[in-house]
């Protein structure tokens, strides 16, 4: 390495010595700045005549630093140096491969020579300009007879001691000449339109306008210096495959090769300045599978035609500088290998030409040779990723790379010429440290030891457990885990499985979580150098939560009958005890979620009907009590009690019950907690009905059914219907309630229907599938019995007028539907019981007398004697000649009859009530008025034979 350094230093010193003949020396260039080859001094418009050339140094921000003028006359060994003022193909600028000088080519002619591009080399030799990092200019090198009658265009050099040149004219091609020489060697004889030479990756390249050579070609192999070299077009650069609608135009000038891929040998990305007008710009190509592939373009415009180009590479980021005739552009691309460039269009120029001048080639400023670096020490000598390491030595200024065990470290800091600091990156491995500067690379004799950081725990899954729980697998998430890492729980190492560097699993036994509390979890790597033991994470063991009961199945049970009880709730763990009516039972957990538990309740546990409290107890405590209903077995069997059927869905279907087959439409057999039933289950009707599919042949006397709202549904009711024609049609039985309550209530209906009868019970909510639900249970139907024939044995009084109350006695009077006096119908009567009916004689009757008859479902009974109906209107005209006086009277009055026949008299008040019972009228026709009779108006009823007369009297 030291030999190479000394050789490079010697060559650099030789260049500086050879540059000394320059007439004037500019200030040294600043590394990182940009140099533009400019044609024209601005004094006059540019023309095709020979024109002065200047090298302008700019900062990356576009600030002009200095201008180096190329000689315009012979001075010592230096020749004049000019170019065609309007030829855009001339005056390419390049930096030597070692980065220590700039090279360019032109004419050995003073300014103002017309037709300079077609001049013979015997008149004006083509010359090479070499400009050192210190600004010194050398134009002593001639290209002899090369490019006679044509234009010199581009120069490339490894270190400034020899040059490759190309141009047009005779002979054209690529020529090789030593520094200060004048007899070049023609390396190629192939015919092509030369543009720009470039040295990259130890090979010589040329851009051309000739598609035969794929626009960019390689000259020979390596860095040739003898004649007969081949020109090989690089595969792929003639591609017309478009990217995002953009097709490369392949009019290349300047270009820059970069090495961005770790899997492709040598340079693998090329940036090419293409001046093809509005579709030009900086193309990006990548070497893929041995062929160059177009990745895209940083587009220019018709007024911005870039030709000059240079670049630098830092990691996978490429910095680029480019020139058009009018502007300087500074940009970068961080997209890396085989990817579209970061930018899609050229940025704004950072600097622009002035009037009567033009920009041509561009290159980064050369850097003077520097001394080789050395490494004397570094501290610390070991550490984890993230450790800051300080490297001391000499000549670190301008360091371009730092590696640890051969792997590049990004982001190192050159503190000064003797100190560099860097941070050990993640994934680094132990090894020597190397520092690279433009001069060479220094490598430490000792190795830096990369130690692993302590493992860390970021989370536990689960992070908690319930005391007394079962064994489980603990997942530990974190960083820095190794094969062989061990998880400890409360200081006890667990059987551990390595999953990845960020995850371990460990088997936690049940004994580790037997008691509530907080426990430390740690991870230990196999050794201290491998990170040691992590900080502790906390695992919490909680007391088990108390169990709860939310419901149970079945919802109720029969007294004296054992059953299996399923309790629903939470935290129903193994070992839970069910406390039922003061007795304890152990059962079985259903599933693994702790939400269901089954237990067998023996018949002795439910000896009688009633409400039984249920609680559950386990390690978490005792639940609140929930009541369980035990019902007594039915003492009488209903026509249908729904206890023998099964239907769990609302879909229409036929259900076989104890009484026979029933059709359930939007209805089911309910046995849940919210079902209101007498025993275990009953019918639940939603928006439909239940109907008998068979006839009861013995008719129906009284129908009784039990009904209630399901749960707490909004109130609705039911409709009871009967059919006597096999279900062809139904008639409504009146008397159903307007709305049901939430308590199961019996409702009775007297129908007295003989023959075949079947029932249908519907919900008044008729919206199928939705709405309020009702429960129906225990339907009883008495057989139809023909009613007994009624009889009338007596009635009192035997006569009376409007308002008189008549009491009829007899037998089988229940259910009376009509009462008549002769042909007169009594509309208002009361059936007191089976032997008594009362009615009030209405006013406005037209009959005088008649037999009383009573009609019931069993028939009609008629009294043996007539009831004399006294009508005030008719009786007033009866017995003409009847006289009653005095009227008013105090204690007696005379009743004179029209005939001598015997008569009876009675006295009623104006409502028809009897106040003086009928008596036979005395022979002297005197009627004595009782002293107790109050003063007022009365009706005197005189009966003689079949005639009844009524007179209005007044007692004083």
What can be said about this structure in brief?
The chain is 2% helix and 47% strand.
Folded structure, characterized:
It comes from Hymenobacter cyanobacteriorum. Keywords: Signal. 2% of the residues lie in helices and 47% in strands. By secondary structure, the chain is an all-beta fold. The chain has 7 domains: 360 residues, Neuraminidase; 77 residues, Immunoglobulins (Immunoglobulin-like), CATH 2.60.40.10; 85 residues, Immunoglobulins (Immunoglobulin-like); 83 residues, Immunoglobulins (Immunoglobulin-like), CATH 2.60.40; 129 residues, Sandwich (Jelly Rolls); 79 residues, Sandwich (Immunoglobulin-like); 80 residues, Immunoglobulin-like (Sandwich), CATH 2.60.40.
Whole-number average pLDDT? 91
Output the number of helix runs.
2
Question: Helix fraction?
Answer: under 10%
- How would you sum up the global shape? elongated
Which CATH C-level class of the largest domain is it? Mainly Beta
Largest sheet: 9 strands, antiparallel
The structure class reads mainly beta
Q: How many individual domains?
A: 7
Number of E strands:
78
Strand content: over 45%
Keywords: Signal
Organism: Hymenobacter cyanobacteriorum
Signal peptide: 1-26
Domain IPT/TIG: 372-451, 454-542, 546-631, 789-870
């Amino acid at each position: 390495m030291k030999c190479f350094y000394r050789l490079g230093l010697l060559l650099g010193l030789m260049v500086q010595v050879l540059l000394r003949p320059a007439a004037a020396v500019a200030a040294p260039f600043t590394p990182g700045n940009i140099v533009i080859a400019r044609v024209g001094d601005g004094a006059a418009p540019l023309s095709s005549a020979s024109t002065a050339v200047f090298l302008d140094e700019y900062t990356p921000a576009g600030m002009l630093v200095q201008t180096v003028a190329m000689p315009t006359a012979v001075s010592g060994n230096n020749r004049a140096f000019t170019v065609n003022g309007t030829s855009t193909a001339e005056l390419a600028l390049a930096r030597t491969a070692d980065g220590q000088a700039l090279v360019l080519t032109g004419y050995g002619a003073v300014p103002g020579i017309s037709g300079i591009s077609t001049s013979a080399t015997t008149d004006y030799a083509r010359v090479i300009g070499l400009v050192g990092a210190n600004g010194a200019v050398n134009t002593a090198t001639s290209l002899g007879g090369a490019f006679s009658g044509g234009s010199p265009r581009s120069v490339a050099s490894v270190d400034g001691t020899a040059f490759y040149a190309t141009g047009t004219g005779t002979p054209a091609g690529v020529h090789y000449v030593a520094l200060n020489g004048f007899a070049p060697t023609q390396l190629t004889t192939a015919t092509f339109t030369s543009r720009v030479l470039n040295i990259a990756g130890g090979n010589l390249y040329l851009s051309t306008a000739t598609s035969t050579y794929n626009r960019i070609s390689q000259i020979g192999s390596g860095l040739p210096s003898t004649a007969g070299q081949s020109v090989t077009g690089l595969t792929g650069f003639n591609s017309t495959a478009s990217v995002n609608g953009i097709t490369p135009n392949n009019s290349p000038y300047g270009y820059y090769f970069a090495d961005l891929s770790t899997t492709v040998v040598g340079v693998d990305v090329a940036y090419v300045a293409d001046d093809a007008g509005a579709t030009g710009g900086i193309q990006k190509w990548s070497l893929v599978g041995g062929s160059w592939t177009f990745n895209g373009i940083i587009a220019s415009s018709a007024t911005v035609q870039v030709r000059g180009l240079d670049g630098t590479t830092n990691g996978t980021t490429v910095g680029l500088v480019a020139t058009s005739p009018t502007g300087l552009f500074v940009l970068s691309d961080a997209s890396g290998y085989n990817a579209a460039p970061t930018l899609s269009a050229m940025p704004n120029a950072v600097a622009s030409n002035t009037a009567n001048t033009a920009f041509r080639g561009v290159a980064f400023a050369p850097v003077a040779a520097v001394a080789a670096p050395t490494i004397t020490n570094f501290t610390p000598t070991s550490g984890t990723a993230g450790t800051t390491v300080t490297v001391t030595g000499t000549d670190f200024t301008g360091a371009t790379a730092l590696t640890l065990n051969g792997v590049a470290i990004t982001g190192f800091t050159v503190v000064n010429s003797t100190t560099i600091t860097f941070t050990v990156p993640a994934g680094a491995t132990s090894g020597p440290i190397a520092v690279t500067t433009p001069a060479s690379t220094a490598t430490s004799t000792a190795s830096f030891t990369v130690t692993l950081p302590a493992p860390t725990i970021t989370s536990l899954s689960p992070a908690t457990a319930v005391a007394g729980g079962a064994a489980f697998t603990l997942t530990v998430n974190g960083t820095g885990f190794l094969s062989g890492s061990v998880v400890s729980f409360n200081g006890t190492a667990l059987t551990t499985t390595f999953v990845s560097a960020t995850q371990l699993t460990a088997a936690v036994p049940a004994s580790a979580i037997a008691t509530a509390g907080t426990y430390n979890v740690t991870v230990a790597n196999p050794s201290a150098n491998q990170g040691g033991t992590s900080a502790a994470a906390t695992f919490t063991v909680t007391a088990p939560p108390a169990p709860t009961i939310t419901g149970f199945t079945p919802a109720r049970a029969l007294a004296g009958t054992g059953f299996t009880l399923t309790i629903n709730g939470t935290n129903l763990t193994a070992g839970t005890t069910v406390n039922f009516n003061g007795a304890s039972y152990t059962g079985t957990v259903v599933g693994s979620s702790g939400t269901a538990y089954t237990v067998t309740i023996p018949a002795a546990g439910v000896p009688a009907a009633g409400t039984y409290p249920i609680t559950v107890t386990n390690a978490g405590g005792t639940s609140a009590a929930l009541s369980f209903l035990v019902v007594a077995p039915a003492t009488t069997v209903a026509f249908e009690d729904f206890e023998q059927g099964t239907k769990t869905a609302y879909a229409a279907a036929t259900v076989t019950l104890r009484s026979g087959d029933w059709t359930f439409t939007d209805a089911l057999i309910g046995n849940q907690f919210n079902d209101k039933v007498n025993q275990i289950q009953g019918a639940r009707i939603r928006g439909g009905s239940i109907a008998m599919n068979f006839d009861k042949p013995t008719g129906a006397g009284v129908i009784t059914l039990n009904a209630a709202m399901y749960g707490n549904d909004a109130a609705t009711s039911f409709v009871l219907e009967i059919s006597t024609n096999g279900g062809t049609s139904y008639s409504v039985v009146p008397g159903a309630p307007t709305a049901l309550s939430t308590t199961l209530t019996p409702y009775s209906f007297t129908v007295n229907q003989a023959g075949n009868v079947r029932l249908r019970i519907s919900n008044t909510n008729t919206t199928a599938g939705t709405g309020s639900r009702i429960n129906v249970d225990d339907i009883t139907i008495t057989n139809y019995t023909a009613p007994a024939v009624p009889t009338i044995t007596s009635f009192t009084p035997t006569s009376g007028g409007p308002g008189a109350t008549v009491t009829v006695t007899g037998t089988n009077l229940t259910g009376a539907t009509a009462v008549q006096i002769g042909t007169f119908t009594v509309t208002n009567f009361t059936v007191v019981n089976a032997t008594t009916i009362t009615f009030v004689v209405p006013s406005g009757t037209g009959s005088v007398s008649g037999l009383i008859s009573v009609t019931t479902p069993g028939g009609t009974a008629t009294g043996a004697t007539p009831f004399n109906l006294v009508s005030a209107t008719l009786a007033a005209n009866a017995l003409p000649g009847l006289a009653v006086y005095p009227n008013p009277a105090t204690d007696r009055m005379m009743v004179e009859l029209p005939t001598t026949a015997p008569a009876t008299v009675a006295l009623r008040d104006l409502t028809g009530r009897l106040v003086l019972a009928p008596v036979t009228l005395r022979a002297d026709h005197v009627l004595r008025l009782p002293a107790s009779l109050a003063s007022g108006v009365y009706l005197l009823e005189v009966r003689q034979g079949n005639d009844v007369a009524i007179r209005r009297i007044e007692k004083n």
